[in-house]
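quick one before i forget lol
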Amino acid sequence: MNRSLPRFFRAALLAVSGLAFLQVSVFGVGAGVSAEQKQKEMEAEVVKAADAPNADLTKLQCGNLVYAGGKSSICFADKFLTDVAQQTNLNVGKTFIPVRLDADHVFDFPFCVWSGEDDFALTKKERDNLRKYLLNGGFILSSPGCSDPRWDTALRRELKLIFPEYKMVKLPMSHAVFSIVNQISRLTDKHGAPAFVEGMEVNGRLVMVYSKDGLNDVSNARGCCCCGGNMIAESVLVNVNVFTYALLY
């Protein structure tokens, strides 16, 4: 195999068999602990697990980014990965693998989710890795937890710093990402109002899909105390399509 290829390309070529999963330990979270505290403790476990990612790279794995020193989120459901495995022929790892954005391990993953809450600022290493990751074949699916406007502002600020030559734009419903597996004719928020997602292209290749409202599917996110904010109702269908599109285009 050509060792000059990015590692996540080599991993994709090897995605023919095997089993991978990571269970986030919640032992020690005592009875009577608030939902918010339990979420924070589970997030701390995710951050700790990112120090030594445990992934079977014979499968197409989805990373859950740990960034800004020690931020991450458990409020992004991995259910869509099981749906991808059931609805396509892709050999998919069915759970997220925590991975640090500033580590070389991030290049083992062809696809990552990026979420969280509150303001943040990436380190120089994280910015360098994010640029290299997206310019060399990686793909990111992103939205803030609970439609948090502070996280949305921080993400847009970081993208302008890292990719001054590229912009996020609204994706038209005619884009192939809305029809590759599930036929999606419209997007709505949880109140039924029209919604949309944005995307960033690099040299004609879609490298990121983002929703300020939310694609997190929090009702299926274990341990998440977030209300979901103004989450897009069709988020699971969108996520299945985005993952499949990212791996096939």
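fyi Residues 35-49 form the longest helix (15 residues).
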